[in-house]
Give the backbone structure.
Amino acid sequence: MSDNNIYPIFSRMQIRNDKEGLLGQHSIMIWLTGLSGSGKSTIAIALEKELFRLGFLCRILDGDNIRSGINNNLGFTQEDRIENIRRIAEIGKLFIDSGIITISAFISPNNEVRNLARSIIGEKDFVEVFISTPLEVCEGRDVKGLYKKARRGEIQHFTGISAPFERPENPAIEIDTTAMSVEESVKKIMDVILPLISTKKDVEWGF
């Protein structure tokens, strides 16, 4: 379809500031990256619960609700991984433009795809959190048996085994779950993001 047939209506829609004002919050993307089994989803869920307790509206995006739905036609080749992250970032931007704090928990294995997401969402709205739990710990957890299958060659392009993971160049936050509890991890993230999302002068929080 030609772009000539697309007629943007953005100028007639409610703007992001209006929606943030309605919700009483500033929306951002909290992008959790790390190996499978590093603790991304566990931390994302705990973070959402704490934000919700404080009255913030959030949305988690992770493999369970993205790979099983809008991205169920994608595999794990390099091209599909890039497209997976591109779609996630575009979805995330829609949530952010709606005033909703968004938490993404994806391996996103290299700086190329993470920078793609950052460029779509926007630098000022993108908070990168590197869950740096070591491979041997992630593999030891292996709650889904994925590492065992990857070691046997049953899963191709598995990050950390048959596909590389590139450390983030300059994450806003780094968390190693071998050294920090879930509660400590959430506190570390909250210390960074609360001034970014809150429109209130005083917000009391804690477990």
Notes: The CA atoms of residues 118 and 149 lie 32 Å apart.
